Amino acid sequence: MNTPFDDHISTDTAELYWNDKPSSDGKDPVRIHLLWGDGVKILEPGVDRTKVRSRGRDRVGWVKNESLGGKSLMEFYYIDVGQGDGLLIKTPDFQHILIDGGWPRTSQDAGKNAADFVDWKFFHDYAVDQIELEAMICSHNDQDHYGGLWDLLNPEQVEDLDTKGVRVKNFYHAGLGWWKKGSKKWLGEYHPKTGETFFTPLMGDRNAIIAALGNNEPRLAGEWAQFFQRVVESKWKNNQPTTIQRLSHVDETN
């Protein structure tokens, strides 16, 4: 995604003033305080202050020119999802990585999870209409980690989002999954290797996931299968299918 900002704050803090200069009685009301690295959209350059929009679709004000000229920073947002994890990373070149998302909304006391934070971040804070994630990472197959990711990809949840859509370039998973065994689900068989025991089978790339969603054994089970159905339906720019890969310390190309 191209950055929606023209400039960034270069000082530790910067006032976003209501006016382009103090009033005749010396009053100079401040709307909010901006922080080092905050992005701004330039609306009207001025001699001493520049009119900008920052940290909100309708949050417009004037900032001192000496506070501009900064750089985009690496940012980490640890999302309160109750039990589980949720982390959004913004890189200096405005790429975004989402790691886990907490329980689904239906299991959250507040009815909110990482999907809602990411939606707020893009629509309200960045003032853009489309969520674009360079990478979505599901650390493992517990629902308090993948539930919020599922909500973000689920078209049935679209009414709960302000953005118009979600694009995901790459999806990464850990390989371990829930497999169907009769009327139950399980993690698969153990197999020994080099003196240790490992779960198999492991989930793989897009084609392997599509096969595991079919009618042949082994196949994915329950809500885990429903989640991955949304993953394989997800798209990137120009309607390109999202790349799906298993995270591994082994180079599987050799």
TrEMBL record:
Source taxon at top rank: Bacteria
Coiled-coil portions: none
InterPro entries in the cross-refs: Competence_DNA_uptake, RibonucZ/Hydroxyglut_hydro
Stored SUPFAM superfamilies: Metallo-hydrolase/oxidoreductase (SSF56281)
Protein name (record): MBL fold metallo-hydrolase
